[in-house]
Design goal:
The chain is mainly beta. It has two helices and 18 strands. It has helices at about 210-215, 285-295; strands spanning about 15-30, 45-50, 55-60, 75-90, 100-105, 130, 135-140, 145, 155-160, 170-180, 180, 185, 190-195, 205-210, 215-225, 235, 240, 245-255. Strands 1, 2, 3, 4 and 5 form a five-stranded antiparallel β-sheet that branches. Strands 10, 11, 12, 14 and 17 form a five-stranded antiparallel β-sheet that branches. Strands 7-6-9-13 form a four-stranded antiparallel β-sheet, with no helix packed on it. The longest helix has 11 residues, at about 285-295. The chain is elongated, with a radius of gyration of 35 Å. The N and C termini lie far apart (about 130 Å).
């Protein structure tokens, strides 16, 4: 840009609102506009997913995605159980009396959640739970393989429980989401991964901390969706293939060393302070002196 060129900057009045929509497909269309204004002077509305959300898709129907006049419409697809959608209006012309277009939101499907997003019924007590695409949550006990090959599903998340006497903070784990992309470490009882996002985990690692690492052994092995079985790993080492193929099954084993479950450490007992005994007086009372005098006589 030459030095002689000028840049004109003008503020545009903006207003924004957000709403939460549940999983499904919607049509948003204009039902009314400010009368007496040309198309150019009408405020426009833009619909987008809220910052940080990747579960809302917006498609113009037809047009460029701006809602300005009657007939303008967009399609919304909410992929998660519920997501926040941002409605932003712009009034560049600032015409007197101009108002954002009136809209209507109409659901296009039956609103039923897919199996992977539906709340799970009460599960039997499990040592850990894996969330699979197409199948949802599947509970298992330590030492059991969870998952099957050839059913076109993969693991999307995992949750471990710490058996007594372990505490949640004694056991933590994370999943591999991409090359060089790891989830944060989470402690036992927390879900790690995703649900209903179509994002498979590509690896898994877990570790014991503190005294628990001296009393317990934690091992895990995996199978990829292509049938390859990964070698067993432990102590926070990754269980993943070199080409990061999604995992279809896991076998997690947690057992006490020596075959005997360590006893829980009892809480420290606080002894009550001993109450001081009253000191014995060495001085004789007047009555005792009188009794001794009578005996002497």
């Amino acid at each position: 840009m030459s030095e002689s060129a000028s840049v004109l900057v003008a503020e545009v009045p903006i207003s924004a609102h957000s709403i939460v929509l549940s999983h499904g497909t919607y049509c948003v269309f204009v039902t009314g506009v400010t009368q007496g204004l040309t198309e150019r002077d009408l405020p426009v509305l833009r619909i987008s997913s809220s910052p940080g959300s990747s579960t809302v898709a917006v498609a113009a129907l037809p047009g460029d995605g701006w809602l300005r006049q009657l007939g303008d419409a967009v399609l919304l697809r909410v992929a998660s159980e519920r997501s926040r959608v941002l409605f932003t209006s712009y009034d560049e012309s600032r015409a007197p009396g101009a108002k954002p277009p009136q809209i209507q939101i109409q659901r296009l499907d039956d609103g039923r959640l897919p199996e992977s997003l539906r709340p799970n019924p009460a599960l039997p007590k499990a040592d850990y739970t894996l969330h699979f695409s197409r199948k949802g949550d599947v509970p298992a006990g330590f030492g059991q393989w969870v998952g099957s090959l050839g059913d076109d599903s993969w693991i999307e998340g995992v949750e471990l429980l710490a058996p007594a006497p372990l505490q949640p903070a004694d056991l933590e784990y994370q999943v591999v989401l991409g090359r060089g992309w790891l989830s944060p470490w989470v402690q036992a009882g927390e879900f790690c991964g995703s649900r209903g996002m179509g994002l498979p985990i590509l690896g898994f690692r877990a570790r014991l901390l503190g005294q628990a690492a001296q009393q317990w052994r934690l091992r895990y092995a995996g199978r990829c969706v292509d049938g390859r079985e990964l070698p067993e790993a432990e102590n926070g080492m990754p269980c993943e293939s070199a080409d990061l193929t999604p995992l279809a099954a896991l076998n997690i084993t947690l057992e006490p060393l020596g075959g005997t479950q360590p006893a829980a450490m009892p809480p420290p007992k606080h002894k009550k302070p001993a109450r001081p005994k009253p000191a014995k007086s060495t001085a004789a009372s007047p009555g005792s002196k009188t009794r001794r005098a009578k005996k002497a006589s």
